Amino acid sequence: MAVGCVIELASRVASGELKNGFAIVRPPGHHAEESTAMGFCFFNSIAITAKYLRDKLNIGKILIVDLDVHHGNGTQQAFYADPSILYVSLHRYDEGNFFPGSGAPNEVGSGLGEGYNINIAWTGGLDPPMGDVEYLTAFRTVIMPAANEFDPEIVLVSAGFDAVEGHDPPLGGYKVTAKCFGHLTKQLLKLADGRVVLALEGGHDLTAICDASEACINALLGNELEPLPEDIVHQIPNTNAIASLKKTTEIQSKYWKSVEPYSVPVDCALAETQKREREETETVSAMASLSVDVEQCFPQGGSRAAGEPMEEEPAL
């Protein structure tokens, strides 16, 4: 039933019948491997849906973003050698000591699929736990640059909410807010002309699941999102997050031009990065305006209209 729901929703989004959607299904699926059920997962809804879109609807490039606090080992396995599907996961890893133990940063794919598997593997346990700043920074420095470069035709999201605050340490222990997931979804809507499909994955706290789902649905509907607290904008990622992101960018820069090690400093405040991006945009706009002004300064007789050929000098 869960697999069928996700396939039906994704097919309608891919065909243009729907703009986007959220399949609120159970059980989850991203741990299920081809011949093995594990982690409450029996059939991998997202992986099966991606294969259906690829094989039956001839969709050439599919992005899968896994937001669950646990690594989606089943989804990674399904597409590890497939260059038509970019799998990106950000998850608690702790050097392989957190379930399921897979998802190391150097697991990048194999064969033709090398480089099409990105793991942002958080390490350092819960000292301190990852939160909004760390997740937003991961999106800004790794996920969105690589996703834009990949240029997918549709985005599938394993929407696990066990990174949301309220989960005990053995189940996650992170402090990402529900509203942050709405902002992450809003960023993904900039891809694939907004063709984004979410499927519910992990989550063991009903309030956290409800609040995060509501935030994501508001983003899908285009509603104005509750802004993030001002202090979040001015914080820098914690030391463990910086180390994890630097390791990921160093590895992935070999495959993605847009993911350059330290090209967008990971260890700077979000507000500073946003300020620099605004200044760069203003500089480009000013230069474009200056160029127009210079062209307008030429005398009428000394300029030519657009499309008018230049006079050729006589050949000697």
TrEMBL record:
All copies of domain Histone deacetylase, residue ranges: 1-220
GO biological process, one term: epigenetic regulation of gene expression
Gene3D superfamilies (UniProt xref): Histone deacetylase domain
Pfam families: Hist_deacetyl
Cellular component terms per the entry's GO annotation: histone deacetylase complex
UniProt GO MF annotations: histone deacetylase activity
Protein name: Histone deacetylase domain-containing protein
Lineage: Eukaryota, Metazoa, Chordata, Craniata, Vertebrata
